[in-house]
Amino acid sequence: MTEIITQFQPDYFAIEQVFMAKNADSALKLGQARGVAIVAAVNQELPVFEYAARQVKQTVVGIGSAEKSQVQHMVRTLLKLPANPQADAADALAIAITHCHVSQNSMQMSESRLNLARGRLR
Question: Which residues are responsible for catalysis (predicted)?
Fold first, then answer.
């Protein structure tokens, strides 16, 4: 993971929040993988952002209960890809799209608050 971060030099690290796994072994493996990824990001001084699966689906598809195939289709459409990405790739891209959307909205809200505060000071 550190090699990938070093190679691509991202500004942020976005990851899906933990969900309830159906079996304990899967939950343990998922938790370990997430832990390794988050530690690598923190060690590279990247800010880490977590998004719930429902929020990602809501952002990308418009429905928080969307199916994987719908996420794949919308990722393909939004990014103008020649074909639907594989499910795992679509999930990762959807998380990135969600982070961009949330970050952009947060910046706009901060600018609006700043402009409002300036207006009150005049």
Answer: 16, 88
pTM for this predicted structure? 0.82
Q: 48 by DSSP, 3-state: which? A: strand
pLDDT tens for 72-116 read 999 999 999 999 999 999 999 999 999 999 988 666 555 656 555
Which CATH architecture is the domain 52-122 placed in? 2-Layer Sandwich (3.30)
Nearest to 81, CA basis, from 70, 72, 92, 91:
72
Catalytic positions, written as ranges = 16, 88
Per-residue pLDDT at 92? 96
16 marked among binding-site residues = yes
The answer to whether 50 is annotated as binding is no
Least Cα distance to 69 among 86, 47, 52, 54 occurs for: 86
